[in-house]
Amino acid sequence: MSLDTPRTETNRERLTAHEALQRLEHERASRLTQLRAIGQAGPDAEEQVMSAQRDTIQRVLTEIEAAFDRLQDGSYGTCRTCTKPIPVERLEILPYTPLCVPCQRDAA
Q: Domains in the chain and their CATH numbers?
């Protein structure tokens, strides 16, 4: 099944709040672990690479925190642009995404 179109089967159409919370917590913990590892890399690490990785991880953490907010206010799983449901398959892969695939493509 494509990530472009919402699921139309009788299966779940959305992640439960508990599933979303677990996925978001896992993503946040992973990024925080990566940041700690970067901090412990020491002076031998290439500063440019480390800086770029740190910036990317910080950006993703910001997106994860925004997803926690959407989970709290009830808008989690709804595309920020077109307001259609984000397919559960996309949320399983990228639980903090605020956009469906078509809107993400348009934003790029």
A: 17-107 (1.20.120.910)
